[in-house]
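Exercise 7. Given the components listed, write out the predicted structure of the assembled complex. Treat all entries as one system.
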Amino acid sequence: MKIINKYKKIAVFVGVLALASCAQEEQPKESQLDYNQPLKTELDKWIDSNYLVPYNINAQYKWNQNTVDNTRFLFPPTLDKVKPALEIVQQIWLKSYATIGGADFVKKIAPREIVLVGGVNSNSNGTRTLGIAEGGQRITLFEVDNLNRKNRAIVAEFIHTIQHEYIHILNQTKPFDEQGWGKITPSGYTATWHLETTAASRELGFITNYARSNVVEDFAETASIILISTKAEYAAILASISSAKARADIQKKEAIVVKYFKETFNMDFYALRDEAEKNTTNVVNN
Amino acid sequence: MKIKYIFRYLVVASLMLHFTACTDTEVEQKFDKTPTERLNAQKSELQEVLLTSPDGWKAVYFTDNKQLGGFTHLFKFTADGKVEMASDFNTTSTPKFTSDYDIQLGSTVSLVFTTKNRIHLLSDSSPAAAPTAALRGKGYLGDFQFLYYGQDNGQLIFKANRTAGDSNSSEIRFVKATSQDWDDLSKNFLMIPNVIGSNVFGANRGLEIIDGTTKKTYDFNPYTTITRFGSYTDITSNNGIGIGYSPNGIVISPAIKVGDQMLSNFIFNSADGSFTATGTNGASASIKYSNTPFVISDDYKNFAPGQPQRVVGYIAPNLTAAQSNSVLCRNLIDKINAGLPATQSLARVQVVFNNAVNGTYIQYLFNGGKATITHFVTTEVNEANKTIILTDDGWTHNAATIAILKDLDAQLTNPEGLYIKKEAFTIVASNKIYTLANASNNGFRITTYQL
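Answer.
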C-alpha cells in the first residue's frame, strides 16, 4: 500500500507537469491577410441587388484564374458589356422561370455563380464552347463581348447557351430518365458530331448536331431549342424533317422533357417556352 | 516487488517523455518577417510603385519570342483600381481605354488586368484572331496576369502567369513611360514599312554583328508583319527574332549577345534603311543592305558540271514581288515586258543545269503564245569565289529575236559568274528558294524556285 501511495503522488505530480508543461503557446492574433471588401462600383451594386439578393447568385465578371480553364486563351468581358449581358440573362431566363416555376424556383435550383468571359472558347476540333455548367453550381458563359441585344440571332444564341446550361444544372440536381431517352435514337450518337450538319441530324431524330454528342447533351439541346423557339418556329423545324420516324423520335424526346418538367418541378414546359419567347421579344425590342 | 518495479519504470518512462516533449521546435529564421508579412509587403510595394510614375508605365510584351514579336503597351494606374491602357497591337488599339486591374495575392503577388482592355487582344482565341494556322485557338499566346518579381533600376519585373513555370520564359519589364510615349504610340506603325524593308538600298539584307574587333554576318530574312517575327541565318544557324516597334526603330527579343552585352534596341537610319543597336567598346549590331552578299554558301557545288540535273526558275507572278529580287533585276524584267506586245509577258526564267541531253541552258518562257527561247551555256566553277560561271554556247533563235532578253541574260552569263544560294525562307509555294546573284556584286539578284 505504501509503495502504491508513494507512486500515486508521483503520478499526480507527473500528471500536473504534463498538463502545465506546454501551456505557454502563443495565441493566434488577428489575421495578417487583408480581408477588406473591395470598393463596390455601381455595376457591383447592381449585381448585388439584381442577382445576389433576389436569387442568391454571384455574377462574376472580373478575371479570376481559379474559375476558368487556364490552358485556354480567354479574356474577361469589357466592362460595358457586363450589365447588358446580365440583363438579358435576368429577363429571359430568370424571370421566365420565376413566373412559371414560382418566385423561389431559381433561388432553390440555380447555379450559385455565373461567370462571364468576354472571348471565344475555341476547341482543338474547330468548334467553340459557348457555355459550361459545372457540378450544378456554376455556369460560365463565353463570348459576352460579342453580345448585341438588338440582334435577335446573337441574343438567341446567347440565351440558347444559358437555357442549355441551366437544363444541365436541373439535370445535375434531379436526373432525367437517361436509359429511356437512350433507347429512342441509340445509334445516332457520335464523338464527331461537329462534322455533321443539323439538317442531317434532324433526319436521324436529333434536334441539332450537338445533340448527337451524348444523351445528356441531347436532352439539354432538345429542351433548350424548344425554349428559344416560338411555337411556330418549332413546328416549322418539325415540318422540315422528311423522315416520319425522325420526327416521331424528336417528339418522343420532347414528351420526356415535358414530363420531366411536370413531374420533377411541377412546371408547364410550354408555358415556360411562351414566357421566354415573350421576354426575348421584350429584350430585342427595348 | 513486482508492482514497485512496474511503477518505477512507468514513472521513468513518463518523465523521459515529458523532458523530451517540450523540445524547442523553433527554427532559426532566415528572414526578419514571416512569409505572409513578406507577401503583404510585396503587395503593398507593387500597389504603391504602380502609382508613382506620373505618366504611367511602358512594356513591350513578347508573348513567345520563338514565334512572335513584341507589342508595346502603355499603362496608367489609379488608386481606385482603374487602369488606362493603349497598345500598338493594331491601329484601333492606340487610343486610351479604361478597365479594371487588381493586385492579387496567390502563391505570389500578381498584377491582373481583370476586365478587358488592350492587353487582352493578345489572348483572343477566336479563329479570325489567330496569326498563323498553328496558333488557331491560341491567338497571340498572351497573358494578363503578371507575377511580380521585384524591381531593377526603377523598372518593374514581371513574368506571365501562364509561362512563369517555364525557365526560358522571358521577363516583362515595365519602364516608366513619358507623355511623349503616349503621344507617339501610333508612330510605331510608321516603322513597319522600314522593317519590311526595301531593296532600293541594296540587293542583300543582312545582320552584321561587330564585337569591337571582329565582324560576323548573317542574312536577314523577309519579315512577317502578322507575327512580327523574322530570322537571321548563316550557313550553320537559323535564329528567330521577335520584333517590336518604336517611333525611331525596333526592339528585338531575344536580344543579340555581343561579348557580354545584350543588344536589343535598334535605331532606324532612313538614309540607308539600316537599323543599328550600339553597345559599348565598339560593339554593335546592324540590320543593313549591301550589294555584296552577307553569307556565301557552298550550294553552287550541287550545280557544278557532273552533278545530277537541277532546275531553278523565276516564275511570275509568284516571285514578281519577292524582296530578294534586286531593283536591277526588277528593272530588267520590266524592260522585257515593256518591249513585248500587251498580250504577252515573261512567264519564267529557268536555268536547267546538267540536263543529260542538252547540258546546261537558260530558258525564257512567255505568256500570251510567244515561243520559248533557249540559251545554251557551258558551266565552270570558281571554287575560290564559290561561284558558277555560265558561258554562251548558242541560242535557239536569231539575234533579232533574242535582243529583248540580252540585258537580263548578260547578268546571268556575266564573266564573274553567279552566287547560287538556297535561302532560309519560302515564298507563296513550299518549294525551296534559290537566289542567283551576279558575283561582280553589281546589285543583280534574282529569286527562283527549285523545280
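Discussion: The mean pLDDT of chain B is 92. The interface with chain A takes residues 3-4, 7-8, 10-11, 14-15, 18, 21-22, 34, 36-37, 40, 43, 80-81, 98-100, 102, 105-106, 112-116, 120, 123-127, 136-139, 141-142, 144-145, 161-162 of chain B (CB under 8 Å).
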